[in-house]
Write a structure and sequence with these properties.
The chain has 203 residues and is an alpha+beta fold. The chain has eight helices and seven strands, in the order αααββββαββαβααα.
Length: 203
């Protein structure tokens, strides 16, 4: 392998089509706003102070992330999780740079947003984000730097919303069983279905 594999990337790949570069906007336009309004899921990437990376899933009812009227920023509530606070700590202690991938079940297109985030503590605003009977403790405010629709090829290859690669959940042990094996704990007594029902109570 070459010592510097990046040196010849431009020789190995064609340049992007002008359409690909032109579609990158510095704000969320009406199409992007509608996409986010319909999206119940986003993956969020963040960087820590050492340059370490983290990608975390976020979900809620469609439109759980709100776009400012001018499209220059968005706000996302932080829902109860495992309290590792990886994303929040990265934003508070690192560069604040984040990347979002919004997805809509049944749609192969992805909407991407990159920008700089800050942790916002505003109890009045947070109360307007109440969902599942809970008010978020903090909010993320993201100043948009780039926003664009992403080619559907990856989701098409995966057939993410289809049946080609769908498996029965029983093919894998439960989450608790796998984690217990990983850290050497006794096998949990609750079944997978019981664990799922328990999680539903803490959304």
């Amino acid at each position: 392998m070459a010592d510097d594999a990046t040196a010849n990337l431009n020789d190995r790949y064609k340049p992007p089509h002008a359409f690909v570069t032109a579609k990158c906007l510095d704000h969320i336009d009406p199409h992007g706003r509608r996409f986010i309004e319909l999206s119940p899921f986003a993956a969020v990437a963040s960087t820590g102070p050492s340059g370490s990376l983290d990608v975390s899933p976020r979900g809620g009812g469609p439109g759980f992330v709100r776009v400012a009227p001018d499209g220059k920023s968005l706000i996302m509530p932080d829902r109860p999780g495992n309290n590792r606070l990886d994303t929040l700590r990265n934003i508070a202690e690192g560069s604040g740079e984040v990347g979002f991938m919004f997805m809509i079940p049944g749609v192969d297109d992805i909407y991407r947003v990159n920008g700089r985030a800050s942790v916002l503590v505003d109890d009045d605003l947070a109360s307007s984000f109440e969902e599942f009977g809970k008010v978020p403790l903090t909010l993320l405010r993201v100043e948009v730097r780039e926003a664009y629709l992403h080619c559907p090829k990856a989701l098409m290859r995966a057939d993410l919303w289809g049946d080609t690669n769908r498996i029965d959940r029983a093919t894998l042990p439960s989450l608790s069983e796998m984690v217990s094996d990983q850290i050497g704990l006794p096998k949990p007594t609750a079944t997978h279905l019981q664990q799922v029902e328990g999680l539903k109570q803490t959304l």
